[in-house]
């Protein structure tokens, strides 16, 4: 039998961008939790977080999942986006049900649909349906494109003053990952969010050209968005090391955006957290120093 004082919340994807923000969010609220990691090496940073406990678990190892899920009542479900993500997540759900977990908060994606042309949206919808059919309580978080996705273009922006995409002038209601983490945190600790789905967006829809303009203003240096064909985007992703499956999926994602299917602004962040979502201007100001060109970063105050 588990210790009644042991954490009742399990965070998967704990070392990723959203997982790290979720850990900070729960810790700030003094909520005990377990953070699931594949390896116990290099976990000192997580262990140092107040109210955190690290547990080893692997989505491909049922025995380790059973151990990680022991005594857990609420679980945050997030895996890496790979060809086996759907299979991994459904395995986790099955083991969670067997282990007596009462509630799963799943990070899904904007417009998840089993009939979508986008592979990411298909697998998320399949997992959502698997969770519903399992009978477990759920909260589905469906965020739009992450503002922090721009950090993947950090070097291109710093050294060349540009970033790329196959999207034309289409607008997207991007969302800050800190708001996604807050929505996840609230969903894990407040039962009023059970059996609900939240579409998470920022407060406005912006084109990539507008993102470049706002980022330029924040860092004081001109940044340009360069629209490229889908094939060029795929080749670029492969060259920087993305697996073929994921590169093709991202190209499908951008085709979905280009069709104007991700421009709607929703109240999801407000509904889930009680506060308005951060704007892209907020994001740009908070992260400006990461995009400074080397010559600007090295300047000394006068």
From TrEMBL:
Pfam families: NmrA
InterPro entries according to UniProt: Ergot_Alk_Oxidoreductase (IPR051604), NAD(P)-bd_dom_sf (IPR036291), NmrA-like (IPR008030)
Superkingdom, natural source: Bacteria
Sections of the chain in a coiled coil: none
SUPFAM superfamilies associated with the record: NAD(P)-binding Rossmann-fold domains
Boundaries of every NmrA-like domain copy: 7-246
Stored PANTHER family: PRESTALK A DIFFERENTIATION PROTEIN A (PTHR43162:SF1), PTHR43162
Protein name (record): Uncharacterized protein YbjT (DUF2867 family)
The species this protein was found in: Dyadobacter arcticus
Lineage: Bacteria, Pseudomonadati, Bacteroidota, Cytophagia, Cytophagales
């Amino acid at each position: 039998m588990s210790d009644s004082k042991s954490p009742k919340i399990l965070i998967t994807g704990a070392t990723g961008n959203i997982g790290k923000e979720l850990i900070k969010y729960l810790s700030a609220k003094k909520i005990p939790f377990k953070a699931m990691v594949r390896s116990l090496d290099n976990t000192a940073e997580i262990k140092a977080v107040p109210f955190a406990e690290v547990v080893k678990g692997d989505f491909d190892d049922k025995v380790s999942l059973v151990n990680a899920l022991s005594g857990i009542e609420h679980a945050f479900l997030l895996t890496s986006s790979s060809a086996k993500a759907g299979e991994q997540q459904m395995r986790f759900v099955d083991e969670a049900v067997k282990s007596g977990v009462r509630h799963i908060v799943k990070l899904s994606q904007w417009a998840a649909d089993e009939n979508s042309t986008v592979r990411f949206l298909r697998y998320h919808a399949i997992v959502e349906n698997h969770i519903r059919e399992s009978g477990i309580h759920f909260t589905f978080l469906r965020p739009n494109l992450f503002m922090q996705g721009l950090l993947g273009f950090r070097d291109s922006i710093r050294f060349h003053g540009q970033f790329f995409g196959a999207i034309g002038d289409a607008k997207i209601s991007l969302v800050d990952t800190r708001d996604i983490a807050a929505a996840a945190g609230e969903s894990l600790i407040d039962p009023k969010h059970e059996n609900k789905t939240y579409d998470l967006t920022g407060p406005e829809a912006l084109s990539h050209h507008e993102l470049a303009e706002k980022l330029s203003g924040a860092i004081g240096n001109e940044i340009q968005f360069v629209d490229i064909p889908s094939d060029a985007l795929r080749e670029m992703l492969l060259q920087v090391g993305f697996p073929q499956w994921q590169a093709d999926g991202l190209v499908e994602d951008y085709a979905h955006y280009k069709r104007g299917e991700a421009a709607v602004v929703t109240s999801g962040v407000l509904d889930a957290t009680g506060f308005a979502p951060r704007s892209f201007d907020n994001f740009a100001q908070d992260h400006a120093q990461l995009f400074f060109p080397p010559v600007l970063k090295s300047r000394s105050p006068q």
